[in-house]
């Protein structure tokens, strides 16, 4: 059975760890959207690994890993990530497959991303600054370069020269840094040479694997509320982070999907700007004081708040989530009271689904259901039955409010701190 794993919130739900746990039951892991804006943290045997583009399955020696045409790849960052894994004794040759059709993030995409954000003043998105939006923009405008192009000196040289001319003219107008076409071409050809043994048609490969009965895990990046269509637009990323996006981004035929798992943090966090109805600065202060909730990619302190039943129910619906893997339950261990939003109030009306207009979402007032906290350490618990009764009640309430069952519970970063419900 092939499994899709999606983030049910604004990303950072702990997908890296859940992928690592689920990989045990799969032969291959596929990353099919986003780029190195993602940061997936996995702790194994006291060692911490932070992966950006690499599927988390790379940490299991027998697992095959694929990066699909729906991603945008910064080849220099990917080469560094692969070299970093080699330095830690992790082999990639014969296990890693990169799509020849994935679009490439160029240095000028970062110039545009960072320049636009700096100029946006009060209207910043709060992007990771990795050039993700401009790279997807070039793809949709049909002027992008793809991984396969890194293997052709002629094509790369001409395309980079033309695009750099255009971007540098814009950069000079705005006072942004300019880039060198010659340097980019040299660096990207070298990266292409390094990556060449990994490059293939991953859409054919994944369907072949599926036809042979190999079980594949599709590792979503970011989260449902950052989806360019279903998320809190314009405060979103530039790809489809929902379950359907994992099919388009990999080329997996949708009728080969088995199960859809939602990664859900026991509270909510978000990085970057945008509405966050259940935001609680007090909860953020508490979690930050515990050393929690700092971004894996940018190191930024994440905004934190209560679980939002309205948004999660929306995520269950648009993804078709069959079950949840809930993470960071231990983050709530010290709290006397825990809230979950069950509806919003807007202009005297009760809403049970998020409004489309961002201006309206900013004005929504959450209606909370409150729960007594368990105020006990759960990090050494290894079964649902051994959880404090109030923690059990909280989890059952989450299931009732969101309409999906919790199948996996995580109470810490380690592989062993995970159990079924
Ligand atoms: P971009 O993807 O860099 O364009 O950033 C757009 C929005 O998505 C910003 O709010 C980022 O903070 C957010 N974002 C992008 N990648 C991640 C992620 O992996 N986890 C959480 N938020 C992300």
Q: Can you offer a commentary on this structure?
A:
With 421 residues, the protein is of the alpha/beta class. 33% of the residues lie in helices and 21% in strands. The chain has helices at residues 15-23, 75-87, 107-120, 132-140, 153-174, 181-195, 202-211, 243-250, 281-289, 309-319, 358-363, 389-402, and strands at 2-7, 28-31, 40-44, 47-51, 64-67, 72-73, 96-99, 103-104, 199-200, 216-219, 257-265, 268-270, 303-305, 307-308, 323-327, 337-346, 349-351, 365-372, 405-410, 418-420. It has a 10-stranded mixed sheet with strand order 9-7-5-2-10-1-11-15-19-20, with helices on both faces. Strands 14, 16, 17 and 18 form a 4-stranded mixed sheet that branches. A two-stranded antiparallel ribbon has the order 3-4. Helix 3 crosses helix 4 (132-140) and helix 5 (153-174) crosses helix 6 (181-195). The mean pLDDT is 96. The site of inosinic acid (IMP) has 20 residues, from helix 4.
Radius of gyration from CA coordinates: 21 Å
Distance between the termini: 21 Å
- In the CATH scheme, the class of the largest domain would be Alpha Beta
Uncertain ranges: none
**Spatial strand order of the main sheet:** 9-7-5-2-10-1-11-15-19-20
What's the total count of β strands? 20
Name the average pLDDT. Answer: 96
User: What is the beta-strand fraction?
Assistant: 15-25%
Question: Which architecture of the largest domain does the CATH hierarchy give at level 2?
Answer: Alpha-Beta Complex
Bound molecules: inosinic acid
Helix content: 25-40%
């Amino acid at each position: 059975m092939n499994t899709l794993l999606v983030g049910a919130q604004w990303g950072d739900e702990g997908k890296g760890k859940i992928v690592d746990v689920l990989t045990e039951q799969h032969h291959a892991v596929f990353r099919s959207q986003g780029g190195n804006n993602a940061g997936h943290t996995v702790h194994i045997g006291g060692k911490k690994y932070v992966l950006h583009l690499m599927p988390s399955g790379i940490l299991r020696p027998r697992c095959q890993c694929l990066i699909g045409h729906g991603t945008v790849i910064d080849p220099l960052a990917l080469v560094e990530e692969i070299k970093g894994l080699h330095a830690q004794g992790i082999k990639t040759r014969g296990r890693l497959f990169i799509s020849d059709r994935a679009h490439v993030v160029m240095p000028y995409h970062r110039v545009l991303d960072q320049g636009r954000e700096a100029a946006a003043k009060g209207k910043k998105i709060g992007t990771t600054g990795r050039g993700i939006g401009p790279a997807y923009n070039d793809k949709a405008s049909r002027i992008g370069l793809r991984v396969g192009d890194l293997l052709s000196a002629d094509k790369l040289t001409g395309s980079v020269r033309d695009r750099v001319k255009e971007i540098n003219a814009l950069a000079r107008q705005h006072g942004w840094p300019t880039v060198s076409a010659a340097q980019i071409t040299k660096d990207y050809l070298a990266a292409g040479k390094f990556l060449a043994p990994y490059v293939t048609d991953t859409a054919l490969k994944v369907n072949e694997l599926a036809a042979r009965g190999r079980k594949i895990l599709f590792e979503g990046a970011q989260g449902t509320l950052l989806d360019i269509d279903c998320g809190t637009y314009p405060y979103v990323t530039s790809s489809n982070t929902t379950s359907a996006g994992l099919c388009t981004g990999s080329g997996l035929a949708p009728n080969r999907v088995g199960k859809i798992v939602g990664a859900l943090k026991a509270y909510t966090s978000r990085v970057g700007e945008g509405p966050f109805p259940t935001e609680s600065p007090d909860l953020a202060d508490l979690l930050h004081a515990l050393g929690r909730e700092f971004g894996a990619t940018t190191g930024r302190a994440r905004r934190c708040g209560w679980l939002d039943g309205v948004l999660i129910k929306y995520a269950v619906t648009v993804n078709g989530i069959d079950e949840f893997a809930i993470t960071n339950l231990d983050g709530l261990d010290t709290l006397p009271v825990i809230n979950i939003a069950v509806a919003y109030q807007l202009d005297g009306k009760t809403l049970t689904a998020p409004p489309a207009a961002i201006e309206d979402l900013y004005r929504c007032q959450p209606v909370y259901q409150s729960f007594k906290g368990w105020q006990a350490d759960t990090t050494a618990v290894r079964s649902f039955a051994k959880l404090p009764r109030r923690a059990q009640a909280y989890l059952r309430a989450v299931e009732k409010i969101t309409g999906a069952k919790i199948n996996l519970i995580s109470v810490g970063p380690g592989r062993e701190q995970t159990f079924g419900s």
